[in-house]
Amino acid sequence: MTPAESRGTVVVGAGILGCLIARESLALDPGARVTIVDRDLVSGGASRRSAGLHFPRGATAEVRELAAESQRYWARLAATRPGLPIHPLGMTVVAPGAREERLRREYLPEARLRPARSLPDGITLPPGASAWTGDGCHYADVPALTRALAARLRPRAEFLEGVAVTKIESGSDGVRLALGTGAVLAAERVVLAPGPWIAAEAWRHLVEPLGARVKKVVALHIEDPPTTEDAVVVFQEEDAFLLPYRERGHWLFSYTCPEWDVDPDTVDPGLTPTHLAQARALLRRYAPGRADRCASGRVFCDAYAPEGAPMVRAVTDDGRVVFAGAASGSGYRLGPAVARRAVRLLHAHRSSGTNRKDEK
What we know:
This protein is α/β, with parallel strands linked by helices. It has 8 helices and 17 strands. It is globular.
């Protein structure tokens, strides 16, 4: 048998969430030995296609709590490292006028929602709809941000890129991870942050009982150059948004694609006529002048939790292996709070020696 190489904490997944978990692990214990393993490059999976939009909203109390904590985290990070690709953004929210009370419950106080004095260029309101202006919004170049965080981690953490985890076993003396290279890692604890790869053979038996599913995520590119004054437009009831992607020089329209149980290894990255028809139908209601300018975009997928909120769960009886994810397309927006929960859960187990299945 191949001798195991000893590690403290192993994070499986080098997307934005995996790098945040490593960052939080080292913030809590600067002397910790942390290894991040990914079968691809840093930010090579779902993070590479993320829209990177953060807005202060949550449909449930738990998601609002995660959003508030993450908002404070991103604001501090942007203030201390102004060179990071995190860009402040205005916000307009469009929703039925009769839903104002619900709207104010879902958005955080930081949003400071108030009736919009005017509509963004090209936006029209269907009968019965109203618009509100809000604060606390930004977007990030998630792949670039993830790589920047990884670069700062590298002096203190080890990255194993292009290395697959083929088997995970937890025992009384720790966790053993077999790698595609033939090496074996022995870890005190492991965090699984695999993004949409929840059904990978190495950990399917651990994650499957959580009930997460994988859904296709589609966003269209609209080839109109945004200005520095343009704000994101959030279509509340449709769970869609129109984002001025200033750094790329075009708009991005994300809508809810109803295609479930897809495989991230086989999902077709190309748009279909159905995707274009679905997106254009919604745009014609609110931004008719942009509907016919949708001709390209991005397609991938993400893991969705059955209750809507991201999951942070111990998936072994000894508590040494924790799953963090199923953020339902909000891995960037809620990532800092999810990472902190994962690290707290691991260290709570380490301190108490008792089994803890959930971190609320």
